[in-house]
């Protein structure tokens, strides 16, 4: 018999272990501040109209009638995932009361980011809800095998009245988006399943005239349901309703107001507001303090600002990331902190050649670099050159170059290869 490599101490040994003390000085129910937490209705602020609109789409399913699909659209932290889960959960509860078979599946396409992965996740979710013992292969098969498992012959759904699928962050499926949507709608039209299917698709993309999103939007009957950002007062109300995450009296006066004001600065993002409050609590805990102060909130905000920037960079298009990498590399390796487009471009070409095997034109790269100024990743200026040189544009990085470089390139091998190539080049 093998021995467990992880030893469990005896009860006596654990008696004086400080870790055995489960109470903390700051939090009472920390889980209320997790981004995945779905609050009860009375804690949801300012989304009545959106909730009612989604209710109207899904409610029929609770009574055995066909539900409708919808497309939720808006910036991050505006309550899209929350509203979709909240309304779907209630519809499912009401269906249970009505003895209607309503199955719900939630797929986070950021995590399951190809058609096969998303279809597999959907099949597994439905299986777990309807028939947990049913065998579905984990790998080695394509998306169609998972659709078959759902609605072919005696597929999982053959006795269900309806299925509601939430496809969250559907834009992360890229070119596969249209594919999965058309499979879901065609299966129903073709009568492959007697089960009604509704899709709640959610996109975080802010520019909804982007080609893929427009195609997605046009596959829905109704207009997208737009989620506007919150204002500081709404963010404050959202945080107030989660106060019981903390022990009584722990939050100093002004802490919630400050966290909401800071989160409203960019666009009113509730995830950011909750994030700041949670990190502020963690910082207070680390300090051994029994109060969360405005100072903790400010520190937490700086930290969350960096995280936000990393996310923005990771979401950038490949070549815009290579160009940004070039600027970060120059910032790190040269004495200056401001570089002309020409300098960025020469470095960019090395990076792009290594990672993508091709590079874009000078003009395209200039356009891509300009896009980093809006989210305040870089700053850009027009500078008059010396005599007869004309004017040119310079770029300055607003964040730590090491952090930016690692956010720009996904794989460790790309990072190694690029650094090798750059150190061999004359840059
Ligand atoms: N109107 C609201 N009332 C209460 N909490 C909210 C509200 N909107 C968002 N939240 C909270 O903010 C966080 C982010 O919301 P989420 O629905 O994930 O945003 P999105 O999907 O639009 O990016 C979640 O923890 C959610 O509970
Ligand atoms: Mg979301």
Note the topology.
Layout: H1 11-14, H2 48-62, E1 70-74, H3 80-98, E2 102-108, H4 115-130, H5 143-151, E3 162-168, H6 176-189, E4 196-203, H7 211-218, E5 225-227, H8 232-240, H9 255-264, H10 270-286, H11 294-314, H12 318-333, E6 338-340, H13 341-356, H14 362-370, E7 378-384, E8 391-397, H15 401-408, H16 412-424
Parallel strand pairs: 1-4, 1-5, 2-3, 3-4
Antiparallel strand pairs: 6-8, 7-8
The protein binds adenosine-5'-diphosphate and magnesium ion.
Written account of the structure:
- This protein folds into 3 domains: 47-227, Rossmann fold (3-Layer(aba) Sandwich), CATH 3.40.50; 232-313, Helicase, Ruva Protein, domain 3; 316-424, Winged helix-like DNA-binding domain superfamily/Winged helix DNA-binding domain (Arc Repressor Mutant, subunit A, Orthogonal Bundle), CATH 1.10.10.
- The strands form 2 sheets. It has a 5-stranded parallel β-sheet with strand order 2-3-4-1-5, with helices on both faces.
- It has helices at 11-14, 48-62, 80-98, 115-130, 143-151, 176-189, 211-218, 232-240, 255-264, 270-286, 294-314, 318-333, 341-356, 362-370, 401-408, 412-424; strands at residues 70-74, 102-108, 162-168, 196-203, 225-227, 338-340, 378-384, 391-397.
- 48% of the residues lie in helices and 11% in strands.
- The longest helix has 21 residues, at 294-314.
- It contains 16 helices and 8 strands.
- It starts with 10 loop residues before the first helix and ends with a helix.
- It is globular and about 80 Å long.
- By secondary structure, the protein is α/β, with parallel strands linked by helices.
- Bound molecules: adenosine-5'-diphosphate (ADP) and magnesium ion.
- The site of adenosine-5'-diphosphate (ADP) has 22 residues, from helix 3 and helix 10.
- Keywords: ATP-binding, DNA replication, Nucleotide-binding.
- Belongs to the CDC6/cdc18 family.
């Amino acid at each position: 018999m093998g021995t467990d490599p992880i030893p469990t101490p005896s009860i006596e040994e654990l008696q004086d272990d400080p870790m055995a003390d489960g109470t903390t000085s700051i939090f009472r129910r920390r889980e209320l501040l997790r981004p995945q937490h779905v609050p009860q209705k009375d804690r949801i602020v300012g989304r009545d109209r959106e909730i009612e609109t989604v209710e109207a789409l899904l409610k029929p399913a609770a009574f055995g009638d066909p539900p409708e699909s919808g497309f939720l659209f808006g910036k991050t932290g505006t309550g899209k995932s929350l509203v979709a889960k909240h309304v779907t959960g209630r519809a499912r509860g009401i269906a249970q009361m009505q003895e209607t078979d309503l199955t719900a599946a939630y797929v986070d396409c950021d995590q399951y980011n190809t058609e096969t992965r998303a279809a597999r996740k959907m099949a597994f979710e439905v299986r777990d809800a309807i028939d947990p013992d049913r065998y579905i292969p984990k790998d080695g098969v394509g998306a169609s095998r998972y659709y078959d498992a759902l609605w072919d012959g005696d597929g999982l759904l053959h006795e269900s009245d309806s299925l509601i699928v939430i496809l969250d962050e559907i834009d992360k499926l890229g070119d596969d988006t249209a594919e999965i949507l058309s499979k879901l709608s065609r299966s129903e039209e073709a009568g492959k399943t007697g089960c009604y299917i509704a899709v709640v698709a959610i996109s975080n993309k802010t520019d909804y005239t982007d080609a893929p999103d427009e195609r997605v939007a046009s596959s829905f009957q109704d207009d997208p349901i737009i989620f506007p950002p919150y204002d500081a007062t709404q963010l404050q109300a959202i945080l107030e309703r989660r106060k019981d995450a903390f022990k009584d009296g722990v939050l100093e006066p002004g802490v919630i107001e400050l966290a909401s004001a800071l989160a409203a600065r960019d666009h009113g993002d509730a995830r950011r507001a909750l994030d700041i409050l949670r990190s502020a609590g963690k910082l207070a805990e680390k300090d051994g303090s029994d109060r969360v102060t405005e100072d903790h909130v400010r520190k937490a905000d700086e930290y969350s600002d960096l995280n936000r920037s990393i996310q923005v960079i990771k979401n950038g298009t490949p070549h815009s990331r290579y160009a940004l990498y070039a600027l970060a590399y120059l910032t790190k390796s040269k004495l200056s902190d401001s570089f002309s487009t020409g300098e960025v471009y020469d470095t960019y070409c090395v990076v792009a050649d290594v990672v993508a095997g091709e590079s874009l034109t000078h003009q395209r790269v200039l356009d891509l670099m300009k896009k980093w100024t809006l989210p305040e990743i870089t700053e850009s200026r027009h500078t008059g050159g010396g005599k007869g040189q004309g004017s040119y544009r310079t770029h300055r990085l607003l964040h730590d170059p090491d952090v930016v470089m690692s956010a720009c390139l996904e794989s460790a091998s790309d990072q190694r290869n690029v650094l090798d190539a750059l150190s061999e080049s004359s840059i």
